[in-house]
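Usage

Read records sequentially. Each one opens with the input sequence:
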Amino acid sequence: MVTELHSESTPETLSGANRRRSPWRRRLVEAERGLTQGFRGDSALVVHLFVACLVVAAGLVLGLSLAAWAMLVGSFTLVLAAELFNKLARIVCRHAARESEAVRQAASIGTAAVFVTVVGGMSVAALLLGGRLVEIFGRQ
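and closes with the structure output:
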């Protein structure tokens, strides 16, 4: 299945239902479809979501501050965005006209970018949750 990318959809290229939708609503539908395809096509996103749920549960139990929640949400967002961009890069590389060393290097760089983002996100979560644990149990 080949997915076409359109920067702007013209009325001639839209189906009947999409012609009635406003441009911002079409973008929301495209975003939802992209998220759905991302989660269906790659188990790494499901693993990231599971770990994020564990961190959220721990944060709720530990009573994190608003600033800590903002940093965690930012970390989750960056990790998921990096994973989605890596999936995009892999699809583009897979459909490249020819398989070359540059295409393999691009895929490896995308994977490295995800790894760096995940390590950064894990570090933020560990510092925030660990710091809160020290606050709670360090007072005794």
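Summary fields computed downstream for this record:
- The helical segments are 16-20, 23-41, 43-62, 66-94, 101-137.
- The first helix runs from residue 16 to 20.
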